Each structure stands twice: as C-alpha cells, then as structure tokens.
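[recover] target loaded
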C-alpha cells in the first residue's frame, strides 16, 4: 500500500505531495502548487465528525511543530469529490541542528488500520 504524503515547510506551507495524495485531492501537485496552511486546511481538512473544522492546535501536525516529535491521530479529510473520509495520520518533524524545518505528514484510510493510534 502506498501512503499519501504531504510535505510542509516550517511555516506550514504545503510544498509537495505525492501521487497517492494527488489521487485523494483530485489533482497532481504540479497543477495545484504550494499552498499556505490556511488554504490547504480549508480545502482538504482536517474536519471533525460533524464536518466542522478541527481545532488545529490538537492535531498531529501541531504536536509535531510544538514538541518536535512524531505524533499520530485521526480526523476527516475532504477528497476531491467533496466526500469526507476518515484518515489515520502520522506527522514526523524534519529537524536539523538549527531547529524545525518542516514536517512530513503520512495518511491512509482509517478503515485500513487495525486499530486507532494512541
């Protein structure tokens, strides 16, 4: 199984996503290009079960940025067809000697997970 992946810079700008992520969002990265965090969050999510925007400070990406460590979670992602699907997510910090440089976010359909991450 190929995992969908977003690559974010230190400001949260989506600077690249792979082909499996492009299938979910409905276009390859070359057609969408870089997106600031506000734009990609509004377009793709994360969303709560009720469809409302998720509180960004409690999501894996926020934990990764704040604490400089990997984090996992689950939320709803809006696909290109506007269908919301539940995904499991792992956010991994990209660190160097001078600090945080961005994050890699991997996500996959929650129904493919054996259990919910802790």
């Amino acid at each position: 199984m190929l995992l969908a992946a977003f690559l974010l810079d230190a400001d949260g700008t989506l600077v690249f996503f792979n082909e499996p992520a492009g299938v979910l969002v409905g276009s390859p990265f070359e057609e969408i290009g870089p997106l600031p965090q506000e734009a990609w969050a509004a377009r793709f999510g994360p969303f709560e079960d009720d469809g409302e925007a998720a509180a960004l400070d409690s999501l894996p990406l926020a934990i990764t940025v704040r604490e400089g460590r990997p984090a996992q979670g689950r939320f709803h992602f809006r696909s290109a067809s506007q269908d919301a699907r539940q995904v499991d997510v792992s956010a991994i910090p990209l660190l160097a000697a001078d600090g945080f440089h961005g994050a890699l976010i991997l996500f996959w359909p929650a129904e493919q997970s054996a259990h919910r991450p802790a």
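[recover] notes: The mean pLDDT is 85.
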